[in-house]
Amino acid sequence: MIFDILTLFPGMFAGPFDESIIRRGKDKQLIEIALHNIRDWATDRHQTADDAPYGGGAGMVMKVEPLAACIEAVKARRPASTVVMTSPQGRRLTHQVAAELAGSDGLIIVCGRYEGIDERIRQLYVEDDISLGDYVLSGGEIAAMAIVDTVTRLLPGVLGSDESAETDSFCDGLLEYPQYTRPPEFAGIKVPEVLLSGNHELIRKWRRRESLRKTRSLRPDLLEEIALNKEDRALLAEIEREDGTCGC
Fold this sequence. Notes:
Elements: E1 2-7, H1 20-27, E2 32-37, E3 50-51, E4 61-62, H2 64-77, E5 82-92, H3 95-102, E6 106-111, H4 119-124, E7 128-131, H5 141-152, H6 162-166, E8 185-186, E9 189-190, H7 200-218, H8 220-223, H9 230-243
Parallel strand pairs: 1-2, 1-6, 5-6, 5-7
Antiparallel strand pairs: 3-4, 8-9
Helix pairs in contact: 3-5, 7-9
């Protein structure tokens, strides 16, 4: 997978893309990340990439000419890649959206800045808009990092075990179950006995129950969006009895 990132601040990516899972993906040659400074396509000596908005108002807007030239240059080299814009107007980045993006031949990620990007860029080039959530960032660079990270970990071979991605929170619509490691007791709190039993079926069932419990407690809205099977419904009934509540 090739990620082309179009930005006014390429220096922001130096640390995050040189560590952890991203670095592992690069070392395994499973991903390639290319940073493109939009200012390099500006034609004036000051490399101007923004201007005042038509109609007045606060802030500046990213100019159409240098960004269009940058997109066209990258797209010419990667014609099969999808052009994605980071924008608060976009669809929210979820596990399902990340999985969809992971199926792309490549991603060209345009990082927004200032008050926004000239709308003609969206009309002419953008194939998808992605948002991290209902809040405003200083620019799209952090959103681009999130897209690269969440897509990369879904690519086969990047993680130590593909099961790691499959059991992450939101993969099946639920929050992940609690995790424990050594020692078996800390500050008077013991690891649940079932996890020490070696009984894989009991462990699987415990993990599913606790995943349902955590989702019900922290993100009950997610339970309305997924199809629960017979076992899930039975486990939820157990949880409700334990908690002294009544399900609807």
